[in-house]
Design goal:
283 residues; alpha/beta; TIM Barrel; two-stranded antiparallel ribbon; 15% strand
Length: 283
């Protein structure tokens, strides 16, 4: 049965290239270049049934964290933010303390993005100590751009910091990883969870609309992580490279339609706020 209840979106990006300092992503000429602000998001998300959302960084610049949080000041439905801080930066501890004072700040994203390499970087002095501070504050680490090297890096990181909660982003976009030994090992750890964003895919004919194409991988991810550690993210506006917001949501719902209704409600609404520790948020 297709899920018809409200949704919580755990992955969207905000940016504004008209700012004097511009933006590092996306670049001019990209189909999604141009302001992407809360009003733009809700014009699409509210009709699709989204009632709350968490914003994820779209810039490696440390001061852009404050720009996002100021933007969220004007929208009570955007209840959380995953920022961008570099544990190797001299300013990391001060920035983490500053951002952690805002209860909407729920962690940082770090992976093979913005020229970084999590497998190599965690060998640098101070990196593990920095992420230990993230864990001590009850915050999470979101990963980025899944691939075999990133999964290996997350496994090594989890070995060194078993107390760190890890959110693996965009797993369905790397279908082969669902059957890898490293991902199996990560999934065996209850502090590691799966954000199932970037589900829609294309082939030579365009958007793959048949839900059966996706179900084996999604079933495998649910098998690995369980119904309480998988949740929905749209990846808007990056998702517009594939299809429009409403189609993205509709396709994900169709893919999950074989799951029992209580599991769908967890996936679309309940799990993300709980796993991100969005205290005080009620759906």
């Amino acid at each position: 049965m297709i899920y018809t209840g409200p949704l919580f979106d755990s992955h969207l990006h905000l940016y504004d290239p008209s700012r004097p300092e511009g933006i590092p992503w996306p670049q001019p000429g990209d189909a999604i270049f141009g302001p992407r602000l809360p009003a733009d998001y809700w014009a699409l998300a509210a009709p699709a049934g989204v009632i709350g959302a968490l914003v994820v960084e779209a810039s490696p610049r440390r001061l852009d964290n404050d720009w996002v949080l100021r933007t969220l000041d004007h929208d009570s439905r955007l209840v959380g933010y995953i920022g961008n801080l570099d544990p190797l930066a001299a300013t990391f501890q001060d920035d983490l303390e500053h951002l952690s004072a805002d209860r909407r700040f729920r962690g940082i994203r770090y992976g093979n993005l913005w020229g970084r390499d999590l497998l190599a970087d965690q060998q640098q002095p101070g990196f593990i100590d920095g992420l230990a501070q993230v864990a001590e504050r009850g915050l999470v680490l979101d990963s980025a751009n899944p691939g075999a090297r990133l999964i290996k890096a997350l496994l090594a990181l989890s070995d060194r910091l078993p107390q760190l909660r890890i959110v693996i982003d965009h797993l369905p976009n790397a279908a082969d990883l669902a059957f890898s030994a490293d991902l199996q090992a990560l999934a065996d750890r209850p502090q590691v969870v799966a954000k199932l964003a970037e589900i829609p895919q294309t082939d030579s004919q365009g958007l793959i609309r048949d839900p059966s194409f996706y179900r084996d991988v999604l079933a495998r991810l649910f098998e690995l992580f369980g119904e309480d550690r998988c949740f929905f993210g749209s990846d808007w506006p990056n998702s517009d490279h594939i299809t429009d917001f409403n189609t993205t949501v509709g396709l994900v719902k169709a893919c999950l339609a074989t799951q029992p209704a209580p599991i769908q409600e967890k996936f679309f609404l309940r799990n993300a706020p709980r796993l991100y520790g969005l205290l005080g948020y009620t759906a």
